[in-house]
Write a structure and sequence with these properties.
303 residues, alpha+beta, Immunoglobulin-like, 3 domains, nine-stranded mixed beta sheet, 26% helix
């Protein structure tokens, strides 16, 4: 009986295990193969980045019924290039739509930045994209969009504005939406003044207490700095730029991503990366055509 139950469990485990499937990527408009580009993959919240092969194929750890989101980036263009979000049903070929990217800012009629305005997009229906519905506290927003004609609306209370643009694939467009009225003030709670006064009083009290304690307490030695803080000042400008980019990218990146975002020429970048590898700052690993780079544990002070 126990053996039968164990056998059943093993069978179920094998049946439910995720098998990697190979899929081809095609342009939905032209039918051409999408190859030799960087692709960001999101399967049910699990994110990864890969290099598409020269044959336009990638391997995906996915099962039928799961939602998959794919965004393709050609390092030669400034914006994103392809996008698709589907529920996978076992197909061996996935069609991706041509896209572009925009960065926007909302201002009123007197050129003041407007925070938290409502945003609405009127673009081509495909691909279906989850656009931001509001600007942030700095009045800015960013998103990918379908190619072609697109109208972006912004509103705040009874003030309204819009921008109509035509976008090409891989383009990164900066836009400014100007509202037709002046925003005199943003909504503020009546008790905000009291909160500010209380916070100010606490800050003054805390500052005075700190100064008193500082006079009484013996001087402590400064904490030892990490290796990265010691090493960064010794690097050249371009070396710092590369290291800072990788740090902001969670400590790892593809070489193609670094070149695309820093604008450093291919040969120069390869030479600088080799030098940083010799200094034990970077670790380089090749996987097919992709070159994966990460900061070493030694540089991060983990050793």
């Amino acid at each position: 009986m126990k053996k039968a139950v164990l056998l059943l469990l093993v069978t179920l485990l094998i049946a439910t295990s995720v098998q990697a499937v190979e899929v081809s990527l095609k342009d939905s408009e032209t039918g051409t193969t999408i190859a030799d580009k960087i692709i960001s993959i999101n399967i049910e919240g699990r994110e990864s980045t890969k290099q598409i092969s020269s044959l336009g194929k990638i391997s995906l750890p996915i099962t039928e019924g799961q939602t998959i989101e794919l965004t393709v980036d050609n390092p030669e263009t400034q914006g994103k290039d392809y996008y698709s979000k589907i529920i996978y049903d076992g197909e061996s070929e996935i069609l991706l739509f041509q896209i572009s990217s925009i960065r926007g800012i909302v201002k009123d009629s007197l050129d003041n930045i407007v925070s938290y305005s409502d945003i609405k997009f009127a673009c081509k229906p495909l691909p279906k994209i989850n656009h931001p519905s509001n600007a942030d506290r700095f009045g800015t927003f960013s998103t990918i969009t379908p190619t072609g004609k697109c109208k972006i609306y912004a509103s705040y209370e009874d003030a309204l504005g819009f921008k109509e643009i035509v976008l090409e694939q891989g383009e990164l467009r900066d836009i400014e939406i100007r509202l037709d009225k002046t925003i005199v003030s943003f909504p503020v709670k009546t008790y905000t003044g009291w909160i500010v006064a209380i916070v100010l009083a606490i800050t003054i009290f805390a500052g005075a207490a700190y100064l008193m304690l500082r006079k009484k307490a013996p001087k402590e030695n400064k904490k030892e700095t990490t290796k990265s803080k010691d090493i960064l000042p010794t690097l050249s400008t371009k070396e710092k730029e590369i290291v800072n980019y990788i740090e902001l990218n969670k400590g790892k990146a593809l070489q193609a991503q670094i070149r695309h975002n820093t604008g450093i020429p291919r040969t120069t970048l390869a030479r600088i990366i080799k030098g940083l590898e010799e200094k034990n700052i970077l670790r380089v690993r090749k996987e097919g055509k992709a070159v994966k780079i990460k900061l070493t544990d030694w540089f991060l002070g983990k050793e």
